[in-house]
Amino acid sequence: MESLQGVKQRFGIIGNHTGLNRALEKALRVSTTDISVLVIGESGVGKENIPKIIHQYSHRKHAKYIAVNCGAIPEGTIDSELFGHEKGAFTGATQTRSGYFEVADGGTIFLDEVGELPLPTQVRLLRVLETGEFIKVGASKVQKTNVRIVGATNVNMAEAIQKGKFREDLYYRLSTIEIPLPPLRERKEDIPLLFRKFASDFAQKYHMPTLKLTEESQKMILNYRWNGNIRQLRNVAEQLSVLEKAREIDPSILRVYLPDSGKNLPMLLSDQKKESDFSTEREILYKVLFDMKSDLNDLKKLTLELIQEENLNVKEKSQGLIEKIYGKKDLESEAPQKNTLDAISISEDPIPKEKEIQPNQEITPYDDYAEAIVEEEPQSLLEKEIEMIKSALIRNKGKRKLAANELGISERTLYRKIKQFDLHNVENS
User: Fold this and answer.
1) CATH number for the 185-257 domain, one of 1.10.8.60, 1.10.3130.10, 3.40.50.300, 3.20.20.450?
2) What is the value of pTM for the model shown?
3) Percentage of residues in the chain with pLDDT exceeding 70?
4) Closest Cα to residue 413, out of 334, 341, 309?
5) What are the tens digits of pLDDT across the range 284-335?
6) Of all residues in the chain, what percent are helix, strand and coil, respectively (each to 5)?
7) Which of 107, 154, 177, 351 has the fewest CB atoms lying closer than 10 Å?
8) Residue 364: which of 413, 421, 415, 412 has the closest Cα?
9) CA gap 92, 103 in Å, rounded
């Protein structure tokens, strides 16, 4: 078996990190078998090199090697791409087409972004892994294939399985051997080597002198997070090679090409939502509306109490506004009758002190509420009230609704006062 350094030179792999070396050793060991392999790692770490190494050092190296980006194929056509279709299987299928599994028979298929496969396709792939059988779209005949499947993904498979986006049985069948690749931020000693390699390649490509980094710039690229990993480092080297006239790159120049990761890091959200969290905008809107309604009801109650208990003139001056907010029925039903004269405009002198009830004084059979009023209010005011009610009934020909509107009280209050003061005769006259 070829040495590790020879593999790196053959495939253009730069670096001496322990994690990288371990991944390459795993790839060489499993290459002589037909075991399914799953390469895991962040985007841009170079996962596509592992299946190439596995294929080139296997007994399938003379057969076809096909790389498929599962995330780039639309869900409606991915089954046709992988397994083929028969003529007339769907609209636009004008002829029979062989899929990748049929074409790569005897070789290797690299399924990049395998975590993005739709669930129906995952079922088909599981059958291929277990029995080597598949059926073309629109066909009824079962076909056999002998392919080595190597998958790669940057998705957290445990979370995808928990959310129901990836089949657990397919994961265990596909990941017989897992090969993790470390991110670039964990390979700090490899970053200067990679930059020099990229700078040299682009200098050759664009026919210009090679870039050089100052010591401060080297420290900067070592401490940078590199969320895009090797792909991002390569892009930065290419941009510097093309755009900068100076061949020695200092931190002031380099800083322009490095996004400020410290200030622009995305906020991480927990998948486990709290009770106060909401899954949809509709639920949030409902919550806001319910809170507003509750606040409005509290405000109405408070305002009503202030009007009735503290300042009677407010109700008299703003009767229209009060009825608009509360409505006549709500105002009548919710408001307790604190005073029998609360809605009648009376221009009298201040109320005199209470008069004692004489022992022989006859008291009209009021309810408890009315009795309290009689005790507190002077007789002159009662007489005035009776007189105003009589006048209103006479002017409106006994129509309670019109009389109540004239007096500024509810019809129910007027009915109670007619009963209280025995004014049925006036009403019927």
Assistant:
1) 1.10.8.60
2) 0.61
3) 77
4) 341
5) 777 777 778 777 887 777 777 777 665 556 556 566 656 656 666 555 555 5
6) 50, 10, 40
7) 351
8) 421
9) 21
